[in-house]
Amino acid sequence: MLILLGLTIGLAAGLTLRSRSDEALGLPAGKEIYDGELTYYLEGPTKLLGACGQMNGENDYIVSVSHIIFDAAGSSSATGGNSNNNPLCGQMVRATRWDAEVNAERSVDLTVVDRCTGCQPNDLDTSTGVFKHMASIAEGRVNVTWVWLTR
User: Which first-to-last residue range defines the signal peptide (predicted)?
Assistant: First the structure.
């Protein structure tokens, strides 16, 4: 009986720690707002294959999330080591920033299609077309807030 009680308490503590860890990593676990930097890739007419197995171009409303978040979400055996099966693939985020040049807030909904190896945990990397909607392309890197959207 004591062993069963100990296992139950240990399991509950482990689940609690995991949910805090997921939240700290920016995994979809609620309506937490994350602060990071927005950058872009995919310049020109070339389509590139992302980690989720889709071809994407410069005007697609897509986003790459940090490799730290992407890999943490896909670490279970359910993905079979195939990044196309990562549970973040196809998830949506809403990115928002204040654009001082036009004195207005910019916002866009994006689909996760890739992992960004150069991103910090809360950074987002998107297509050139999306970046142009959010900021001047000459800025190259801007502050952004974002939240996971529920499907």
Answer: none
The tokens for 52 are 């989720």
The mean pLDDT of 132-140, rounded to a whole number, is: 93
Domain with 45, as residue range(s), is 2-149
Residue 128 C-beta-side C-alpha neighbours within 13 Å: 12
pTM reported for the whole predicted model: 0.76
Q: Does residue 12 sit in helix, strand or coil?
A: helix
Cβ–Cβ under 8 Å, residues 95 and 46 = no
CATH of the domain at 130: 2.40.40.10
Please report how many Cα atoms fall inside a 13 Å half-sphere around the Cα of residue 64, on the Cβ side: 29
82: β partners = none
How long is the chain?
151
